[in-house]
Design a protein that fits this description.
The complex is a heterodimer. By secondary structure, chain A is mainly alpha-helical. Chain A folds into two domains: 43 residues; 204 residues, MetI-like fold. Chain A is 76% helix and 0% strand. Chain A contains 13 helices and no strands. In chain A, helix 2 crosses helix 12 and helix 3 runs antiparallel to helix 9. Chain B is mainly α. Chain B folds into two domains: 186 residues, MetI-like (MetI-like fold, Orthogonal Bundle), CATH 1.10.3720; 40 residues, no CATH class. Chain B is built from 15 helices and two strands. In chain B, helix 4 crosses helix 12 and helix 14 runs antiparallel to helix 15. Chain B starts with 10 loop residues before the first helix and ends with a helix. Classes of the chains: A mainly alpha, B mainly alpha.
Chain lengths: 266, 322
């Protein structure tokens, strides 16, 4: 009795969670240019528009991809030494540094966005694409920092001791023990940052200064003119990317553990 | 996500701390520049001064803060408009975060009782909806709640509207601003704002509660059951006390997250009930172009957020000690 009720509750929650996604996915199939649900004259013409024919969207998608890949790579490259120092030394200074690195993610993004807008205006780089990449890397630094730290903590001490006993230098230990064991966690961190960067827009809005647009920014800019089914296509494309990425993380990494589940129970 | 504790590694015994200190300094410099200077700039510029037609200039004046709390024309006139916006920001965020945690709690509890495989599948779905951009979520709910499609249409077609009119509930809904003379309407309303906001953070709520609930020892609840406690009793005397602090911590974190939400408020809240985040945007990039005042409002948002984050941190620490 309680079990059935539990299943019904979970299914209902899942349904509500999926509801807007289903509606948007349905609307993306509209044959016409108005956002109707259920869709009218359903076909895939809007998909062709978004991915191939409409320059605005193709360009925006290209920018989104460049920014997301650039930012998440940079975030992982910055997070690695930080996580490593935090794990190997555990000094007060390294903890403070990690805390500072997580600030942008923890505080309201609109404040960080406004601040970055001021910063890049001072340096004279406002509106450059690389500025968008660096800004997103700073914003999402906290994500690879957390996943890599979890990975480093999961390394078996015995392996390190064994390496040390056999005379391995720190560099060799790092290459043969630490790096391979934390690789899945680094990749997970990379993907978390990638997906969130794809979907972020308010920080991007302030640092792009309307010089270029990513997909979310393009949608946000046309907010007042109303939605079109082409925008719904963008939403569908993004949710498919997220699902694929997180499925990959779940397939090749330990998603419950990354999310903080107790590992002793399976 | 979980907090990171660093167990002091015995690695430090093998590595002299003098090794390549410049690397650490360079890292500190980069992080300081990218993650800290933006916030410092916002704080410094909030004391600046607007110059008509030419942007703004450095200064040290409290005029922007005075304008926020009592209005620019004080003492002749007191304007509480900006405080009211902050009030609405807090108001929406409180209701939405409490709502999200209350509904996410039973869900997450049930989730952690599933098999590892089922948990992974649910987590993929939840993470995907968590990362979905606010613009897409607002788009979806906009279609669902707009007057010509979605729920109002469903109400009309299914006869629910007529039923509401017959039973007199329709008048109640009109009083709440959730109906026009002909049918129910959800845009623009506090209801739509809070609903979308709590949808926005619901997956975050699950992710935040997940570690605490999945570490809950099942033998505790089993013991209570064997001793004859009913499910309600087990919930109130075994489960809730153990997860009370993570629960409050989650509400606080989601609350901070929602303080800055922008698109939802712009689209779903009535024009008279907009929030500080919207005002920041308007001042910095919108029609008024008053960067120092925008920065001052951002600082107030920042201070509010930081205070609640510190409280959440303190509660998390306490729950880890226990």
């Amino acid at each position: 009795m309680g079990r059935t009720f539990g299943h019904i509750f979970m299914a209902l929650s899942g349904l509500v969670l999926a509801l807007p996604i289903i509606v948007v996915a349905g609307a993306s199939l509209n044959g016409g240019r108005t956002m109707l649900f259920p869709p009218e004259d359903p076909n895939f013409a809007r998909f062709v528009e978004f991915f191939v024919t409409e320059t605005i969207w193709v360009q925006a998608l290209q920018n989104s991809i460049i920014v997301a890949f650039g930012a998440s790579t940079l975030a992982v490259l910055l997070a690695w030494p930080l996580a490593y120092i935090l794990w190997a030394r555990g000094s007060k200074a390294s903890k403070v540094l990690a805390g500072l690195g997580s600030l942008p993610f923890a505080l309201p993004p609109i404040v960080f966005g406004v601040g970055l807008g001021f910063l890049w205006a001072f340096t004279g780089n406002l509106g450059a694409l690389w500025v968008g990449i660096v800004s997103h890397a700073a914003l999402f630094l906290a994500l690879p920092l957390v996943t890599i730290s979890i990975g480093l903590q999961s390394i078996d001490r015995a392996h390190l001791d064994a390496a040390a006993t056999m005379g391995a230098t720190e560099a060799v230990t790092f290459r043969t023990v630490i790096l391979p064991q934390t690789l899945p966690y680094s990749i997970s961190g990379f993907f978390f940052a990638l997906v969130l960067s794809f979907n972020e827009f308010i920080v991007m809005f302030f640092v792009s200064a309307s010089a270029y647009a990513t997909v979310t920014l393009q949608i946000f800019n046309s907010l007042r003119n109303g939605y079109t089914p082409t925008m719904a296509v963008a939403a569908v494309a993004f949710i498919v990317v997220s699902l694929a990425v997180f499925s990959a993380v779940a397939r090749w990494g330990d998603l419950p553990r990354l999310m903080g589940a107790d590992q002793s129970r399976n | 996500m979980t907090a990171v504790d660093s167990p002091k590694a015995n690695l430090s015994a093998e590595t002299p701390p003098t090794r390549r200190p410049w690397g650490t300094w360079a890292l500190a410099l980069v992080i300081g520049f990218l993650c800290v200077t933006p916030f410092i700039l916002v704080i410094v510029i909030s004391f600046g001064q607007k110059i008509d037609g030419a942007g703004w200039a450095w200064d040290f004046t409290f005029a922007n803060y005075q304008r926020f709390f009592i209005g620019a024309l004080w003492p002749e006139e007191v304007t509480l408009l900006h405080l009211q916006r902050l009030y609405y920001a807090l108001y929406y965020a409180v209701i939405a975060s409490v709502l999200a945690v209350l509904t996410a709690f039973p869900f997450t509890y049930l989730l952690t009782r599933q098999s590892r495989r089922a948990q992974s599948i649910w987590l993929v779905f939840i993470l995907a909806s968590l990362s979905l951009s606010e613009v897409f979520i607002v788009m979806g709910w906009d279609v669902l709640l707009s007057n010509r499609s979605g729920l109002p249409m469903l109400f009309e077609v299914s006869g629910a509207t007529d039923w509401l009119k017959e039973t007199g509930w329709f008048e109640v809904l009109r009083e709440w601003g959730l109906a026009n003379p002909r049918n129910v309407k959800f845009k623009t309303s506090e209801f739509a704002t809070v609903l979308t906001m709590s949808y926005l953070v619901w997956p975050y709520a699950v992710i935040l509660l997940y570690p605490a609930l999945s570490r809950l020892d099942p033998s505790l609840t089993e013991a209570a059951r064997t001793m004859g406690a009913g499910p309600a009793r087990v919930m109130s005397s075994v489960i809730l006390p153990t997860v009370k602090l993570p629960l409050i911590g989650a509400v606080l974190l989601l609350f901070v997250f929602l303080l800055g939400s922008y698109v939802t408020v712009v689209v779903f809240a009535e024009p008279a009930k907009q929030t500080t985040a919207v005002a920041v945007y308007e001042s910095v990039r919108g029609s008024t172009l008053d960067a120092p005042f925008g920065a001052a409002q951002a600082v107030i948002l920042l201070v509010t957020a930081a205070a609640f984050l510190a409280l959440a941190q303190y509660l998390t620490k306490r729950s880890e000690i226990r």
